[in-house]
Amino acid sequence: MSKIEIKNFNSYYGDFKAIKNVNMNIEENEITAFIGPSGCGKSTLLRAINRMNDLVEGYRKEGEIFLDNKEIWKDIDQYALRKRVGMVFQKPNPFPMSIYDNIAYGPRTHGMKKGKELDEVVERSLKNAAIWDEVKDDLKKNAIQVSGGQQQRICIARALAVDPEVILLDEPTSALDPISTSKIEDLLFELKKKYTIVIVTHNMQQATRISDKTGFFLLGDLVEYKKTDDLFSNPEDERTERYITGRFG
Ligand SMILES: Nc1ncnc2c1ncn2[C@@H]1O[C@H](COP(=O)(O)OP(=O)(O)OP(=O)(O)O)[C@@H](O)[C@H]1O
């Protein structure tokens, strides 16, 4: 059984069809990359996996997405879903509060009150996001006052703090320098041992470096989806080949 199963999935913004009958299975403890030119629907599909599009005006969907065999609109409460499926965005978006409070925010909203318990969650989450050593003496510092790369790892720590099962990342390194990018790639590689990771990236080298499977999207279609090495070394569809060899997009 796959961790996530996307079945006959369509998405519309008003009359515009952004996702066209996508079917794909996403495996546990793997990194799955979504690639494709701008506007092809990668973020729309990613955001569907934790129902983040539901409130967008004019948005509607058809089809189903299953998490551990449970349909996310029918069988799972949306708050429970958001706890199980965390999200990290392109632009680091820490809350304008201390590093500690950023990480404690989620656990507190889920009812964790005790100082010691919270301290442990904060430390563990920052360690798992490979940022603890850099901030452990500055936990009271405002999270918006550290570097962009550090902010992004704080956002990953914040996502980890509620103990999710899946982490969705929408171009998490596109605003970062190469050193921060490489730290986050190493981190994702570590995290996949425990989590299921789905990442949208414009950077094909990044997809080849870190992902197990890659899906290539074009104009809302999932054109090709398979093991990353196979997709890049042996694309079956001519459109995939043209894209990965830089002939369009
Ligand atoms: N809120 C919205 N209202 C109307 N149309 C939208 C909205 N969000 C996205 N779209 C349209 O849906 C299509 C898919 O957008 P989406 O952001 O999913 O693509 P993407 O592949 O992630 O693009 P990018 O790589 O540029 O982030 C685009 O044509 C976009 O203009």
TrEMBL record:
What CDD domains has UniProt attached to this entry?
A: ABC_PstB_phosphate_transporter
Pfam families of this UniProt entry? ABC_tran (PF00005)
Q: Which GO terms describe its biological process?
A: phosphate ion transmembrane transport
Q: Which GO terms describe its molecular function?
A: ATP binding; ATP hydrolysis activity; phosphate transmembrane transporter activity
Q: What is its main location?
A: membrane
Q: Where in the cell is it found?
A: Cell inner membrane
ABC transporter domain sequence ranges: 4-244
Q: How does it sit in the membrane?
A: Peripheral membrane protein
GO CC terms: plasma membrane
Query: Which SUPFAM superfamilies does the annotation name?
Result: P-loop containing nucleoside triphosphate hydrolases (SSF52540)
Keywords from UniProt, A to Z, are:
ATP-binding, Cell membrane, Membrane, Nucleotide-binding, Phosphate transport, Translocase, Transport
Per the record, the domain of life is Bacteria
Fetch the InterPro entries from UniProt: AAA+_ATPase, ABC_transporter-like_ATP-bd, ABC_transporter-like_CS, P-loop_NTPase, PstB-like
Q: What does this protein do?
A: Part of the ABC transporter complex PstSACB involved in phosphate import. Responsible for energy coupling to the transport system.
Q: Which PANTHER family match?
A: ABC TRANSPORTER I FAMILY MEMBER 17
Q: What is this protein called?
A: Phosphate ABC transporter ATP-binding protein PstB
This chain is encoded by the gene named pstB
